[in-house]
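Hello, quick one for you while I still have it in my head. My current little project is about how a certain protein chain folds up. You're getting the sequence in one-letter code plus the fold written as tokens. Would you mind checking whether the tokens look sensible for this chain? Here's the protein in full, and shout if anything looks odd to you:
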Amino acid sequence: MIRRFGRDRRGNYALMTVLAMVPLMGAVAIAVDYTEMVGQRQNALNALDAAGFATAQQIVAGASDADAVAYAKNFFEANLAHIDPANTTLAVTLPNNNTGGGTLKLCATLVYKPYFEPTAKLLLGGSAGSTDIGFSTCSEVRLKNTLEVSLVLDNSGSMKELGKGSNKVRFDLLKSAAKQLVDQLAGQAQQMRQVTKPVQFSLVPFAASVNVGAGNASAAWMDTTGISPIHHENFDWTTMSSSFSSTKYAEKIAGIWYAKGTGWDASQKDQPLTRFSIYKQMKRISACSLKNWDGTCASNATFTYAPVASWGGCVESRPYPYNIQDTAASTTLPATLFVPMFAPDETDRVDSSSRPANNNWDVDAPVSSGASDAARQRYMPKYFDWVNKVTPAYGMDAGPNTSCSTTAITPLTDVSTTAGATLIKNAIDAMADDGATNVPEGMAWGWRTLSSTAPFTEGRPETERGNDKVLIVLTDGANTYYTPTSVTAQTYSGTNWNYGGNDLAGSKAIYSALGYVVPYSNGYSYGRMFLGTDVTKDDYSNANYTKAMNEHFAALCNNAKAAGVMVMTIALDLDATKTAEKTQMDALKACSSDSRFSKDKTDPSKPMKLFWNSTGATLSDDFKAIGNELSNLRIVS
């Protein structure tokens, strides 16, 4: 029996099972804890990634630093599933470059408290103690940069010249290089389908002035009631008082000139008299059924009337300081409104050298023969007294549209679409080279196309992070504004137009975006040319006008960069041996921003200035370099 008992193994299974239960239960406990730990770790990582993307969207939308950090913490904890937030910590590192995107970094720590491991340790003969398990992980989100670029391109007459080192004219070289840049950035933009409007371009052709588009005549930012202090600076509406005509006269009421009397047509009667009014009310005889021997229309003829001219779309420069600012236009601050250009008809008389006025496009009648030339220039009835003969209409850069020679601005357009890229490139091809050079006016309008506020509202909000606003400014010459005798007159002004114009009216300059240097009346101490400058105020020379415009340009550059706009400048074929051109080159370089990526080749400790001293031969390569610089702004990791 004893031997059978010794050989009997039936109870061993129970004993072995009891002995094996301790490690088996420990293993099960560890497995359960491990599975739970892995699950919690993955949940924390998922919550971290989700919080990163959600917080990035808040930052792009303009959230403050404090709000972004609080949002990240709340979002992270809300997505931890069954993890106790008390067992986690979150560290948020915000992007350090508000205008260039940057990286948002979120790091979380999780302390896992095992369910069974403490008991398992005791069962296995271990001692009690902390069994918490900690781990940490990080998630980075690179804010996806969007890009808004304004091409501010010189369309002055000198762009007709051959580019240095090239057998092509500068204008053709510029058009080719600019379209190449659009294609380069558009190709990259098309790969970023997850971003709305990743790259946008605007185009601002400039010469003596800038064309905002005739379709904006009734825009809220235009001066449609004549309240700007410069709106009537060349007009004397008192010459159309009721004593002149009881049926068609002008009356000033509460600071605004109104059309009064039964002689006005229904669309103008009792409405404000403005430059738009003159464009609409001026008529010419386009045809008559019977003519006299001298070409005039017979009194018994049937007349056909047509407009003398339509507003071409160009605007005058606002008075300082608004000419160098992006201040929103408002009727509560009339000087901020934009005024349509209207070049006054100048005197019919010639000077002692038989030179006509620069822009004599209408007859002075019915002004008295003894009136001074200045009085003739500001005499208003002449615009509503039609010549008794067939006369042609005036187009761009002629008659009242003199100095308005460029095509209209193209607002910011998404070039990630084929239609958008084509629109910008077609606008580049349509540019026309004619006129003087007013770089500050072109740059100011480039800035306004990038702005999120009117006149053009296509720009992203200035508070939106991850978006860069870039001005690319190119010119082939110094700023220019001309005295009447230094340039030829309009061909229709008089017989000796090619001898230069006269200044019998004492305006001291031809009419352009800054008006006359000595206007009739604008409420300021000086003409707009000299406002806000330190130049000599009684030096009426081309060189002094250039100095004044250079001062405006320098102040404008500082204002734009202070507003977070990146400025890239290009001097095309400028000659450093010529004082005026060397001054322009220095001004363009000083205006340019520092590169965020490239170093100065002569001093690697400094950033490269975003300025290119180009020639016709290097322009294409320089635009490629600009494209590479812009591409760096959009790197997404």
Remarks:
- The chain has a mean pLDDT of 90.
